[in-house]
Amino acid sequence: MKQTNQHITDLILQLQGVDVSKYDETFLNKSIQKRITETHCNSVQEYCALLEQKSNEGEYFLNSLHISYSEFFRNTLTYSALEHIVLPSIALQKRSTKQKEIRIWSAACAAGQESYSLAMLMEELKNGDCETIKYRIFATDQDQTQVIEAQKGQYTAEALNNLSLKRFNQWFTQLGNNYIVKQELKANIDFSVFDLFSEQLGCPPASIFGDFDLVVCANLLFYYKHEYQKMILEKTSGCRANGGYLICGETERDILIRHNFKEVFPQSAIFKK
Questions:
Q1: Which of 68, 51, 46 is nearest to 15 (CA)?
Q2: pLDDT in tens, 87-138
Q3: Residue 70 belongs to some domain of the structure
Q4: Which residue, of 33, 44, 173, 239, has the greatest Cβ tally within 10 A?
Q5: 42 and 112 share a domain?
Q6: What span, in angstroms and rounded, lies between the C-alpha atoms of 47 and 53?
Q7: Are 138 and 240 within one domain?
Q8: Backbone angles phi, psi at 204, to 5 degrees
């Protein structure tokens, strides 16, 4: 498996100028096998020949590595803790220090479900006892196609299954067979393309200085090798505000624990350094 991955990795670097060696070996191998099947190749050697002969196959392969699956309110326990404890406590802290804005970074926003879920929680918080609190969500992804989809905010009825009826009625309007996010929910979200492995940038340029109260980097870490997981964690830690929180995916909790993060509430996937 490792030799196969290395051969493809070398070819992609040579032909596309992109280093895919940062991906976890198992994930990379599954992606390779999937492209072999989809291109009807009979062997790795045949697929390598295809990569060299067909200029756009390298692009198809790179696109297959982009992680784009997401859901609204994906981890029930995480979002419950955010709604009832974490976000209200951040708001109270902001009021006590006379700061006006809660800053959130959705670091791998995919098609936008995570970012809009966070915005719904913030809007509900504003309508409670914290009307003076403003917020800004910086939603980024390395895939420009995904960022464009997130900005559109258009989803099938099936994609909205996790939403309560109240949230569904409040924040979506029907557009043909699909449903689109209302402009009011988009107002405080800034969508942009951002590479978490950028050596030049420590945080999304739109945020200027980072200082995030909450960084959500969920269901992304396990796609990368250990050294690249560490790079992501160092980058997201470096731009969090003092006392800021980091959220990972439900199955990524052990990764953060190994890097000396402390889970704020058991099984919540909400951490502090």
A1: 51
A2: 999 999 988 888 879 999 999 999 999 999 999 999 999 876 656 789 999 9
A3: no
A4: 239
A5: no
A6: 10
A7: yes
A8: -55, 130
